[in-house]
Design a protein that fits this description.
Blueprint: H1 22-43, E1 115-118, E2 121-124, H2 133-136, E3 148-156, H3 160-169, E4 175-179, H4 185-194, E5 199-205, H5 226-237, E6 245-250, H6 258-270, E7 274-277, H7 286-293, E8 297-299, E9 302-303, H8 310-327, E10 329-335, H9 338-353, E11 357-358
Parallel strand pairs: 3-4, 3-10, 3-11, 4-5, 5-6, 6-7, 7-8, 9-10
Antiparallel strand pairs: 1-2
Helix pairs in contact: 3-9, 5-6, 6-7, 8-9
Biased composition (Low complexity): 80-94
Biased composition (Pro residues): 61-79
Region (Disordered): 51-105
């Protein structure tokens, strides 16, 4: 009966003692002890050996035959995403409007330290402290958005009614271009600047078809001696003050000739101004020369009103937005026609709701360390 099934309280029966005599057991122990002493005395003088356990059958694991080395293909590496090469955003260039050293005065206030009195009027110049008109007369940005558009509406100063309408109706971020052949330019400049507009001065340059197509008095001529063109430039620069940027008015037959335009661009650089090529002439070499001369520069990508039709102007505004979304920034130019003013202002009101930033022109000029 096993322990689990036996009745409780009963003790297990005593097992019978072994009948083997005690002397036999003692004899066996003695023999074993002598054998152990003999074995230890022998093993002390022998090197260590590995003793297999008796009767243990340990089969070695089969070793596969050697195989020829196989080439290991490298892990695939995903190519880095391709990024279109674009010009450096102007926000990453050296130009910083109204730096700490720039005089803190309203943009319409005349700064004598940035002016040179000449027979051709008051011309812009770099101050003895190194402040440029580009620095002092630019409208700065407090924030920089991902999509920036500068819109320049030119032809101001010629028609009093058109000039007043552009100043009053257009958003203050729109840059106004005043023609050097206009009238009362300093008065209009002050009105425009007090309403928050940045201003540019348009310089007449010889177009294709000149003199049938005539930009006006003191036009810079492709075949004129450099000294004569510099004198004409000074006459134009002296028509107005407080502008950071100069731009061409026409010039299809002037801006494509190095010997004609290079002295003009050097003079603008030395007077601390920036230059905008309005993009009207595909053959213009002005930007290449500006880069070479380290003259702050920019280029208009789209002319809004080559076709004076509201729908066509609206389409051009959409096109400039698409370009700015791809590049981060773009410049559009136009003339102060009633259709242009109306379409530009309607577009700006809608664009701002969609996060498009309209910026003063100077903020999209490429500048260079000095």
């Amino acid at each position: 009966m096993d322990d689990l099934n036996k009745p409780l309280g009963q003790k297990p029966a005593k097992q019978a003692r072994s009948r083997a005599p005690l002397w036999a057991a003692a004899l066996a122990l003695g023999v074993a002890g002598l054998g152990y002493l003999f074995w230890t005395s022998q093993s002390a003088n022998q090197p260590d050996t590995v003793v297999a356990i008796k009767d243990a059958k340990v089969e070695p694991e089969p070793v596969p035959p050697p195989q020829p080395a196989q080439p290991v293909a490298p892990a695939p590496v995903e190519p880095a995403p391709q990024t279109a090469q674009q010009p450096d955003p102007p926000s990453q260039t050296a130009f910083r409007p109204r730096t700490d050293d720039t005089p803190k005065r309203p943009a319409w206030v005349f700064m004598p330290e940035l002016a040179e009195e000449t027979d051709n009027g008051i011309l812009p110049k770099i101050s003895t402290g190194g402040i440029r008109p580009l620095d002092a007369y630019s409208n700065p940005l407090t924030t920089i958005g991902p999509t920036r558009i500068a819109i320049v509406i030119g032809g101001l100063g010629i028609s009093q009614t058109g000039t007043q309408k552009a100043i009053d109706d257009l958003d203050s971020e729109v840059t106004l271009g005043f023609s050097a052949v206009g009238n009362s330019l300093n008065r209009w400049m002050q009105v425009a600047r007090k309403q928050g507009h940045e201003v540019a001065l348009q310089i007449p340059m010889e177009p294709i078809g000149y003199p049938t197509v005539d930009p006006g008095r003191n036009t810079l001529l492709a075949d004129a001696p450099p000294a004569e063109n510099i004198a004409r430039l000074h006459s134009a620069l002296g028509r107005m003050t407080n502008y950071p940027v100069v731009m061409n008015y026409l010039g299809g037959n002037f801006a494509n000739k190095r010997e004609a335009i290079e002295p003009i661009l050097k003079e603008l650089r030395d007077r601390g101004l920036a230059y905008l090529d309005d993009g009207s002439s595909a053959a213009s070499i002005a930007l290449d020369l500006a880069e070479e001369l380290r003259l702050p520069n920019g280029v208009g990508s789209i002319i809004l009103d080559d076709v004076r039709d509201p729908k066509a102007i609206e389409n051009q505004l959409r096109n400039i937005e698409l370009l700015a979304q791809r590049r981060g920034f773009a410049i559009a130019t136009g003339t102060a026609f009633p259709e242009t003013i109306a379409q530009v202002q309607a577009y700006i009101a809608d664009a701002k709701k969609r996060g498009i930033q309209i910026v003063p022109l100077s903020n999209l000029m490429r500048d260079y360390p000095r």
